[in-house]
Write a structure and sequence with these properties.
The protein contains 10 helices and 11 strands. It has 301 residues and is of the alpha/beta class. It has a single domain, classed as Rossmann fold (3-Layer(aba) Sandwich), CATH 3.40.50. The chain has an 8-stranded mixed β-sheet, with helices on both faces. A 3-stranded antiparallel β-sheet has the order 7-9-8. Helix 3 links the parallel strand 5 and strand 6.
């Protein structure tokens, strides 16, 4: 789906990081801010941006306020002067500044890949404010094979003359991740991952320097992520995993559910790698179940 600049769908918002980077978010369903439901904060993966959550946010915005965040160096957020600030603990500080900026006391967090790491760190730092969580294809242990694959492409500039060229390049590189995608699906993904620059080229929509800290082993997550996961025990949690994911193993996913307890649910998306789009029918139904649990218990324990 093309990127829509329609203020009936969302409003653009901005805030400032502690080190002076102007950051951006999309605010869907702002009118729902007064309905008593906690807003849903959405965090995308390493090379992705707020557009990844457009379909989910539009579907939910009739009843929920959904805030899709561009991490620093992505989308419409500013680029950092220091590339070594492109690490999860800095993203955590940026999100905490957003919570303060919007005076949000309680929230739901959806996090894909890197966004899920930030979500787990948030849960550890702000446990009493977390109403529920969706973790998309990420956990406290990351498969080395998947990390090696990501390190192999992140930070490598690419451009295409047309959107269709970009879509076909994505299809060729990621056919094993989404084998059921047709060209329209790849075109929609291209319009989330790339942007049109001033020279008329289709280019990746992130600062290539995000690769610098990521190439240093250990910078992809925080210390002792199992302890951060424990902060979610007893909360409503939805864990989504791609069946062929090379980032979140089935063993780790099962261990997470066992550790989180009875209020956690695991949904595995068949014929899908890293990471599910969250538009899949089984995931949409699970998201609705998660939000029903949160609505039934509006005050965090």
């Amino acid at each position: 789906m093309a990127d829509r600049r329609n203020l009936d769908v969302y409003q653009d918002g901005y805030w400032w990081s502690k080190d002076g980077v102007r950051l951006h978010y999309r605010d869907y369903g702002h009118a729902n801010a007064a309905n008593g439901r906690p807003p849903i904060l959405c965090f995308a993966g390493l090379t992705r941006n707020a557009r990844d959550y457009a379909n989910v946010a539009e579907r939910l915005s009739g009843d929920w306020r959904v805030i899709a965040v561009d991490f620093r160096g992505r989308g419409e957020s500013g680029y950092a002067a220091d590339p070594m600030s492109y690490v999860p603990l800095t993203y955590l500080q940026d999100v905490e500044a957003l919570l303060e900026h919007l005076a949000i006391e309680r929230f739901v967090a959806f996090g894909t890949s890197l966004g899920g790491i930030v979500t787990m760190l948030l849960a550890s730092a702000e446990r009493q404010r977390i109403a529920g969580v969706l973790l998309n294809d990420v956990g406290p242990e990351l498969d080395p094979a998947g990390l090696a694959r990501i390190r192999g492409y992140v930070g490598k500039a690419a451009w295409h003359p047309t959107w269709m060229h970009a879509a076909r390049a994505l299809a060729e590189a990621n056919a094993d991740v989404h084998p059921r995608f047709d060209i329209e699906d790849w075109l929609a993904m291209a319009k989330r991952l790339f942007r049109l620059n001033s020279a008329g080229r289709i280019v990746l929509d992130y600062d290539m320097k995000i690769a610098e800290p990521f190439r240093v082993p250990g910078n992809e997550a925080g210390p002792d992520m199992w302890r951060t996961l424990d902060a979610l025990a007893g909360r409503p949690v939805l864990l989504v995993r791609g069946e062929t994911s090379d980032i979140l193993s089935a063993r780790t996913a099962d261990a997470m559910i066992l550790r989180l307890g009875q209020r956690a649910e695991l949904v595995t998306v068949p014929d899908c790698g890293h990471a599910p789009t969250l538009d899949e029918p089984e995931v949409s139904a699970a998201i609705d179940r998660l939000l029903d649990k949160i609505s039934a218990e509006p005050v965090a324990a």
